[in-house]
Specification:
alpha+beta, two-stranded antiparallel sheet
């Protein structure tokens, strides 16, 4: 989730009910209600650090499991924590005498393969297996030497203060919020988090490094090797890509690239969807941001399955459209490849002939300083929605949006020109949006990772900055490519010095005939 839990009103929760330092006399011999287990039974007498039993400390830690608790230095050491009212000092477990230092995380140096074999057992794991197979000695029971394991461990660390993590005691409302989040997480993940990196890798039959590679490719951060953060559903999902490499359908580099594409696109999609739901609550129900986010959590369970079905359908439909571009519609692009060009252009070695266009809102930066958060969000959303509709109807592809700017491409100069003119005309006629500067350049590009690259893209961006509000600029090559079409009129502009391209003669693109792109209205 992108936000923290909602705030707590002073009249809804009595802080003294959750803060042992502020509890009335006689209340310290019973655990608070939220520490009761699933059976409703409250753990036994309070003891341990801060007057809490281990079970209660675990429950308190779980209540804040959605937020990383900073590990502080040993209490009393220089720079160490000074625990305030309402905080629980959680003792770190003592380090085993034979524990080796944690190994550094391997880097992607190319020396590792995605199909590296399962890691060998560490000395600690081998020792643990031997211990499990032998007659286990109960924790705390005296050994032959007359010293219990716990006592021996404590003696080893008696000369140093335990490290602690200060965890504020959550309020009732916050505990309810975290409980809802955890329930939703279980539904989304499909299983409990019971596996470490190493265990997940073993189930997939690869090395820990390989599992970490795929996890990072999905856009998730590295985790400590001993953290149980993964589910059996994670194993099944990541093993799908491993199997494609094993069976020879993909090489490792392609598998990582495909995994990264899914991670990046779904990350942006999820943020977009959550913010759209929050904005709906704020606009239509007049809720505060924090309250709206809380209510979105309540709404999400009913939306998961429908959105997932639509997402799967949309992916297949988009793949089908991409195949059409590769076969049928690409013919028109191939036919137009050499138009207006003599082969001496800087982008000639690049593989794809495309019309590349930019649209940029005028004075957006200065306007955004005077807008409220809600007005700014509505302006950006309106701009992006109109641009996306025009580009789709015109047969182009929206490559990306960056705040007040959109980048698109199309297979032919005419398609790029129609989209550019429609963008300028539609935005100029909108009473809410400021005018836009637009450009379109016909040239060759390199398409990688969902983006496009090359001099054509750079030149289109430079021309956008030169255009007057409400107008469309093209370069000389694009003007020559469009010149035979009677629907367009090119008006030469004074030569300009353009960074990276030298002297360029822009042309203003005007419509002289045709109906242009017809929108559905609204």
């Amino acid at each position: 989730m992108s936000d923290s839990s909602p705030g707590t009103s002073s009249d809804s929760v009595d802080a003294s009910a959750d803060d042992p330092a502020r509890m009335p006399s006689g209340a310290g011999d019973r655990a608070p209600e939220y520490l009761a287990g699933e059976t409703g039974e409250v753990p036994g007498p309070w003891e341990g650090a801060g007057g809490y039993a281990p079970e209660q400390l675990a429950a308190a830690r779980e209540d804040w499991s959605d937020f990383p608790s900073p590990r502080s230095r040993p209490a009393g050491s220089p720079g160490g924590p000074s625990l305030g009212t309402g905080e629980i000092a959680l003792p770190r477990p003592p380090r085993r005498r034979d524990a080796a230092p944690a190994a550094a995380t391997p880097e992607d140096t190319g020396a590792h393969s995605l199909l590296d074999p399962v890691d060998a057992d560490t000395p600690e794991e081998a020792a643990e297996e031997v211990t499990e197979e032998s007659t286990a000695q109960p924790a705390g029971e005296e050994s032959a030497a007359g010293v219990s394991d716990v006592d021996a461990s404590d003696d080893a660390d008696a000369d140093r203060a335990p490290e602690t993590a200060a965890i504020p005691i959550p309020t009732l409302e916050q505990r309810s919020w975290h409980a809802r989040i955890r329930d939703l997480e279980r539904r989304l993940l499909g299983a409990e988090r019971t596996l470490t990196y190493r265990q997940m890798a073993r189930e997939m039959g690869v090395s820990t490094h390989s599992a970490r590679k795929l996890w990072r490719a999905l856009g998730f951060p590295n985790l400590d090797d001993d953290v149980k953060a993964f589910t059996h559903t994670d194993v099944e999902a990541l093993a799908t890509m491993i199997d494609l490499v094993r069976e020879g359908h993909l090489n490792e580099e392609t598998a990582i690239s495909l995994t990264r594409s899914i991670g990046q696109m779904t990350d942006r999609m999820v943020v977009w969807q959550i913010e759209a739901l929050v904005e709906d609550k704020i606009a239509n129900e007049q809720l505060s941001d924090a309250t709206a986010r809380s209510q979105v959590v309540e709404t999400l369970p009913e939306l998961i399955e429908p959105i997932q079905r639509l997402m799967g359908y949309a992916w297949r439909r988009q793949l089908s459209a991409a195949l059409q571009r590769l076969t049928v519609r690409v013919e028109s692009g191939l036919a137009a490849t050499a138009r207006g060009r003599d082969g001496s252009e800087d982008d000639s070695p690049l593989p794809l002939a495309r019309a590349v266009g930019f649209a940029d809102l005028v004075s957006y930066t200065s306007l955004s300083r005077t807008m409220s958060e809600r007005t700014l969000a509505q302006t950006v959303q309106r701009f992006e929605s109109k641009c996306a509709e025009i580009i789709s109807i015109g047969g182009g592809r929206l490559v990306k949006t960056v705040g007040d700017e959109v980048l698109y491409n199309a297979e032919t100069p005419e398609a790029g020109a129609e989209i550019a003119l429609a963008l300028a005309e539609t935005i100029a006629a909108d009473d809410v949006l400021p005018q836009a500067r637009v450009s379109v350049v016909w040239g060759r590009v390199l398409s990688r990772m969902g983006d496009i690259y090359g001099p054509t893209v750079n030149l289109a961006a430079r021309l956008t900055a030169l255009a007057d509000p409400g107008t469309v600029l093209v370069d000389s090559v694009t003007a020559r490519a469009l010149e035979p079409d009677d629907d367009y009129l090119m008006v030469p502009q004074p030569p300009r010095m353009v960074r990276g391209f030298g002297e360029v003669t822009p042309h203003m693109l005007l419509r002289s005939g045709g109906t242009g792109i017809v929108l559905d209205g609204g």
